[in-house]
Amino acid sequence: IKQGLPNVEFRANGVTNKFPIFADVPDQIVFENERVEFTLRATDDDGDQVTYGASNLPPGATFDSLNTRIFTWRTDFNSSNNGPLYEPLFYARDGKGGIDIEAVRITVKNRNRAPIIISRIPDRFPSPNGTDTTVVVDSTGVARFNMRVTAEDPDGDRLTYAWQQNGVPVGTNAPTYRFVGVPVFHYVSVTISDGFDQITETWEIKVPVVLVSFSASADGKNGVRLEWRTGSESQNLGFNVLRSSVRNGEYVKLNRELIPPRSDGEYSFTDVSLTAGSRYYYKLQDVDANGNVTTHGPIQIEAALPTEFALSQNYPNPFNPSTNIQYQLPQPAQVRLVVYNALGQFVKQLVNRQQTAGFHTIVWDGRDKNGNQVPTGVYHYRIEAEGFVMTKKMVLAK
What we know:
This protein is mostly beta strands. It folds into 4 domains: about 20-110, Sandwich (Immunoglobulin-like), CATH 2.60.40.10; about 115-205, Sandwich (Immunoglobulin-like); about 210-305, Immunoglobulin-like, CATH 2.60.40; about 310-395, Immunoglobulin-like, CATH 2.60.40. The chain has one helix at about 80; strands at about 20, 30, 35-40, 40-45, 50-55, 60-65, 70-75, 85, 90-95, 100-105, 105-110, 115-120, 135, 145-150, 160-165, 170, 175-180, 185-195, 200-205, 210-220, 225-230, 235-245, 250-255, 265-270, 280-290, 295-300, 310, 325-330, 335-340, 345-355, 360-365, 375-385, 390-395. The strands form 10 sheets. A 5-stranded mixed beta sheet has the order 13-19-18-15-16, with no helix packed on it. The protein has a 4-stranded antiparallel beta sheet with strand order 23-22-25-26, with no helix packed on it. A hairpin with a 2-residue loop joins strand 32 (about 375-385) and strand 33 (about 390-395). It is rod-shaped. Residues about 125-130 have low confidence and may be disordered.
């Protein structure tokens, strides 16, 4: 004590206190858009009541200091950019001045987000046969058009583009591609990458068979002749011919087997199963190697009516054992068609009934009225219809 100063007396009462101690919480490593959660626990050897608190919490994080003592945080896709290291502080107090501080390191790692396709040209509108896009061709039979994708990267990464056509790399590192293709099917894809993840867009493109012409002509007793010509074909298996009596009605396939492709692209088909004076509609289908079908048409034609009565020469002639006899009626008529032998004797009546106008064919099997096979020789067939009478000769040769 310094001389000259009055004496001062101090009295201190010591308190024995053990501070609370946190259980160690290991450092945390999480990725963006993940949840991190842990519980803080502290013990006090004096049995004092411990209260908790926290500071320096990451944005959006919570700490339940009153009940569960659980720290919870859902990181977002910006957490690694804003960090990536976070160090929240947690406090344990015993009310007697004792305190412990626990710092927990949380490292947030970047989680890459893949590119996103915003739009595509051509857009995809699936058709009934499964194709995405059907295109038209120019006069040379080739389809040409621009394709494009618009994409963005949520992380702002630089994007690269890799185009393929039918599995072969094409084009350049750009969001656009110039498509050039001939019939029939092409598969185009573009793979967009940000250097970490990638996304692929695919088109199935049909370049149809180029049909230069498709026409029909009525040929009286021979029916309707269909003719068509193609400008180009690729992977074409052949054609089907369809017919309907109503433009938007149900169409029936006429050919039993596919009409095979020709190198010259010139085709024809004759429909003989017609009713004279009736209107018909025809469609043409081309079928490719993948089973895909493209329909052309319809075209319309009216089967011609005969302008006069007529009896045609039978065919084949000579014949064995049967032959065809064809005749035409310009109007409905009661028709009688009879076969005689060379002596003028009655052999068999083939027709005796009312018939409609048009072209008719009857088959004689070389048998008489009793069903017996007639002998080799010359025979005559005679038609009577509304005053029209005509007789022709035929030969049965065995």
